[in-house]
Amino acid sequence: MNDLLPADTALWQFIEKSVSDLMKAYGYSEIRLPIVEQTALFSRAIGDVTDIVEKEMYTFPDRNGDSLSLRPEGTAGCVRAGIEHGLFHNQQQRLWYTGPMFRHERPQKGRYRQFYQVGVEAYGFEGPDIDAEQIQMTARLWKLLGLTGLQLEINSLGTADCRRLYRKLLVDYYESKRAMLDEDSLRRLERNPLRILDSKNPDMSAVNAGAPTLMEHLDSESRSHFDRLCSQLSACNIEFTVNQRLVRGLDYYSRTVFEWKTDQLGAQAAVCAGGRYDGLVEILGGRSTPAVGFAMGLERIFEIVRLQNTGPETTGPDAYLVLIGEKAERDGQLLAESIRDAGYSVLMNCGGGSLKAQMKRADRSKARLALLIGEDELETGMVTIKDLRSNAEQLSVSQDRISDYLGNGI
Ligand code: HAM
Q1: Ligand 1 atom nearest to 103, measured from its CA
Q2: Which of 4, 101, 304 to mutate to test the pocket of ligand 1 (most atoms within 8 A of CB)?
Q3: What does the pLDDT look like over 335-348, one tens digit per residue?
Q4: DSSP code for 255
Q5: In what helix (H) or strand (E) does residue 8 lie, and over which residues does it extend?
Q6: 68-81, pLDDT tens digit by residue?
């Protein structure tokens, strides 16, 4: 779990602002959800035999003995809230959320136990147009952030029925290759054979390459949904590859799944991932409602923005107010307020100090201007202005003319 330090917050805020501008541009409304939910919500939604539910949740009994968990992701809570507040009843919804998620994974670069996600979910839309819209949104976000080199992979997982049939074929195939399976895959063979396809173990790649693919066994409606999605993406000039081994680590998906990947973060390649989950609302007790969404890991996006150096330059306040002597300190408060009234930012020296010490602090604050008030200035009603980013001669101006220089420098 990380502390996000002040030196990094400007970049975080740049990403967060880009995200909220994006949501506005596409007409998605923000929903704010609790961080803690009933454990059963996650096991029913994400699946009992997924890594997340089996090994990664922070689960604890509360004082009533109920089992609660810190949310490992946002989709389950979003569906719960939608059912509870009747948001899906004869309505379409486009929602987004942001906040910390928790997974007890082995930490490494790009993988943390508390991490921030932005999630997007849409309810009540059946066709592939909304899948394409959400992928388009992500592509626009990379553009807003100035990022390049992210690659989109898509796949279809079909309906629950065709997945059941496919699962049988897959189990038969892996049973026939039992001797080639690693320990993880043997365990998955019993419980969640589709996840074997997702194995990161290079020794598994040969046996996985020969496995039957779900794409060959899709039902005709899922096939047509997928084909229409592909043609909509092509029409929007969004490049993608079809990865038939893309299966995702959460059980609720059906039909479309997608991931944006980077090669800049080592093993943690997925920056953004999601897909359709048409069965989940019903599983959690609501009326059958088509749904599609995705989430992105903000630490990973932060890291790529930093590596590609596309963030804004960090800037300090418009001015630093240097105050020499007790009377200047008292008058300084009023001057600082009048500068803020005019819409500028000012850091007022607090705690005294020599002229030299205060000028050092002014420099460190990255302020554009230093405004000096000492005994001379108090007598004449003037302020000395020094531009900290140019070699221009310092000026002496009357207090009511300071705003001519704030924002412009000398
Ligand atoms: P997910 O693939 O588990 O999907 O997570 C989405 C993204 O969160 C990942 O692509 C990654 O960027 C980030 N992420 C996941 N785990 C970590 C971690 N330990 N540290 C840092 N970043 C991480 C979901 O969570 C689904 N709820 C997405 C979704 C929404 N599907 C439909 N709607």
Answers
A1: 19
A2: 101
A3: 999 999 999 999 99
A4: S
A5: helix 6-26
A6: 999 999 999 999 99
Q: Is the CB of residue 95 below 6 angstroms from any atom belonging to ligand 1?
A: no
Ligand 1 atom closest to Cα of residue 107: 19
**pLDDT recorded at residue 198:** 83
Cβ of 77 below 6 Å from ligand 1: no
- Tell which one of 53, 58, 70, 73 to mutate to probe ligand 1, the residue whose CB is within 8 A of the most ligand atoms: 73
Backbone angles phi, psi at 340, to 5 degrees: -65, -35
Give the SS3 label for residue 101: strand
Contact criterion met (CB below 8 Å) for 290 and 124: yes
Q: Give CA–CA dist 74/83, Å, rounded.
A: 14
More confident residue, 285 or 400: 285
75 ligand 1 Cβ < 6 A: yes
Average pLDDT over residues 126-154: 98
Buried (b) or exposed (e) across 62-73, using 16+ Cβ within 10 A?
eeeeeebbbbbb
As a whole number of angstroms, the distance between CA 24 and CA 21 comes to 5
